[in-house]
Amino acid sequence: MLVKDVLGECLAKMGREDFLSESSLSDEDAKLRDRLLAALNIAYREAVTEFIPLYHEEEVTVSEGEADPSALSKRILYPVTLSFAGERHKVWIRAGRLRSDRDGKGTLRYAYLPEELPLDGEIEDMRVTPSALSDGTLAEFYLADKVFDLAEAYDASFRDAMRAVRYKGRPLRLGAGRWSE
Prior knowledge:
The protein contains 4 helices and 7 strands; from the N terminus they run H-H-E-E-E-E-E-E-E-H-H. With 181 residues, the chain is of the alpha+beta class.
């Protein structure tokens, strides 16, 4: 989905005309576009950090039980697994370093924080819909404007959509309970 599509949906929900494809914008429209883009980036980062993480795998070298997370190609949120020749080993973050109980070259799978989305960018994650992202964007936008009732309504809709995506297709396990009369 295109960033402009999400912002266009935001404008439609605000009751505004979609002016994003126009070649010249007034100062007011350019300011609104920039504020909506900033709010979209906040909402998208919230979605991938709290609800639908993005994962990446790459080779790392662990020396003396440590690896440098700044050498990774993406900004790491947290490590998921570290495997050496298919065998999993413990991995954790301590004081800005990745720590492991084994040395050598291994494959690290980790959740990462995406880069800022530009106006002409594209969101390739198919788990999130433009409608859900526009709700999150408008929640952040109205929160910044201190319109708390609209911010709360859009935030609730955004969080409901993200929770549905988080568990879609996965069975939920409920603990054993007791029936009482």
